[in-house]
Design a protein that fits this description.
This protein has a four-stranded mixed beta sheet, with helices on one face. α7 packs across α11 and α9 runs antiparallel to α11. It is an alpha+beta fold.
C-alpha cells in the first residue's frame, strides 16, 4: 500500500477512536490533521524550506532568525517535528517517561529505528535500544556482510555522514558515541559497504545527489556541488590529476560553513572523510588512470 494511503488509513482509525477531530476523548479540545503530499525534494527536509513549500512556493530555506517557533507557516509561530518524534510520543504517554528513560544510554534515551541498506544479508528497518553496538546491528540483525565478504566501511546516519571503518564496529548506536568516533547518527540511515566497493565512486554518486537536490539559492552549494561532482567524475573515469584530492578538500572547506542551509555543508562531509581514510584509493585511480574496482563490480553485476 502506498505511503500516503497508509497515512490516510491511520488518520481514519485515529478519528474513529476519538484521538483526533472534535472534542478529543471528551476533553473539549479539537485537533484537525491535514495531510499534504510533498514532491520529494530533499531540500524540504530543512524545516524552513518545508514551510515555504507548504505555502505553495519553491522549496527554499529561509534566513534564521526568526526561527519557525517565532515566525513559521504563513508568518505564524510553528512547531516542526519529524515523524520519528511523533511516533515515539504515544508510547511515552502510554508507558511513562521513566519507562522510556530506562532504555538506552545516559546521553541517548529509549530506542531508535535504524534503516540499514547496502551489502548486508538482511537489509531493513531495525528498532534497537540506543547504545546497541553497531556490530550487533550489522552482524546479528542484518545477518552479516553478503556473499561472505568483508566489511570495508559504513555510513552510520545517512548520505552526508562521515565514513566509519571496521575498527568502529563496537561503537554504540548513540548520538554522542558516534560523534566521538568521527561521524554522526543523522537520520539513522546506515549504508554498509563490502570489500569490492569503490569508495571514490560512492563519494561521486553522493556528491551528484547533493548537486541534483541543491535548491540553487546560494552560490557555495549551487556551484560547489557542481564542481565537486565534475572533479569526482574526472578521477573516477581515469582523468584525475595528482593534486585533485587536495583540491576536493579545498572545495569542501570553502562550501562547509558558507552555505545558506546545512545541505551545502553536508555535501562535503562524506567526501572529506573518505579522502582522510582512503586517500590511497584516490591516488590509485589517478596513477592507473582508471577505477581499479570497475572490472570487479561489473563481473559481480
Amino acid at each position: 500500500m502506498p505511503q500516503t494511503e497508509l497515512l490516510e488509513t491511520a488518520l481514519e482509525e485515529a478519528r474513529a477512536a476519538g484521538y483526533i477531530g472534535r472534542n478529543v476523548l471528551g476533553s473539549g479540545f479539537d485537533v484537525d490533521v491535514l495531510l499534504h503530499r510533498g514532491a520529494g525534494a530533499y531540500i524540504c527536509g530543512e524545516e524552513t524550506a518545508l514551510l515555504t513549500s507548504l505555502e505553495g512556493y519553491r522549496g527554499e530555506p529561509r534566513l534564521k532568525p526568526p526561527f519557525p517557533a517565532v515566525k513559521g507557516l504563513y508568518g505564524k509561530p510553528t512547531v516542526v517535528n519529524n515523524v520519528e518524534t511523533l511516533a515515539t510520543l504515544p508510547h511515552i504517554v502510554r508507558n511513562g517517561p521513566d519507562w522510556f528513560a530506562a532504555m538506552g544510554t545516559p546521553t541517548g534515551k529509549g530506542t531508535r529505528v535504524w534503516c540499514m541498506s547496502g551489502h548486508v544479508n538482511r537489509p531493513g528497518n531495525y528498532e534497537l535500544e540506543m547504545g546497541t553496538p553497531i556490530r550487533e546491528l550489522i552482524y546479528e540483525h542484518g545477518g552479516g556482510i553478503w556473499k561472505g565478504r568483508s566489511l570495508k566501511a559504513f555510513q552510520p546516519g545517512g548520505a552526508s555522514m562521515m565514513v566509519l571503518l571496521p575498527e568502529h564496529l563496537d561503537v554504540g548506536l548513540d548520538f554522542d558515541a558516534i560523534a566521538k568516533a568521527g561521524s554522526m547518527a543523522g537520520a539513522g540511515a546506515m549504508m554498509v559497504m563490502d570489500e569490492t566497493t569503490c569508495i571514490v565512486d560512492v563519494a561521486r554518486r553522493l556528491v551528484k545527489f547533493f548537486e541534483h537536490e541543491s535548491c540553487g539559492k546560494c552560490t557555495p552549494c549551487r556551484e560547489g556541488t557542481y564542481w565537486m561532482a565534475n572533479l569526482f567524475d574526472r578521477i573516477e573515469f581515469g582523468e584525475g590529476k595528482p593534486g585533485d584530492p587536495d583540491l576536493l578538500l579545498d572545495m569542501g572547506y570553502n562550501i562547509d560553513g558558507r552555505s545558506f542551509c546545512p545541505l551545502g555543508d553536508a555535501s562535503t562531509w562524506f567526501p572529506r572523510s573518505v579522502i582522510k581514510y582512503f586517500r590511497d584509493e584516490f591516488e590509485q585511480h589517478i596513477v592507473e588512470k582508471a577505477c581499479p574496482f570497475r572490472g570487479e563490480r561489473e563481473a559481480v553485476a
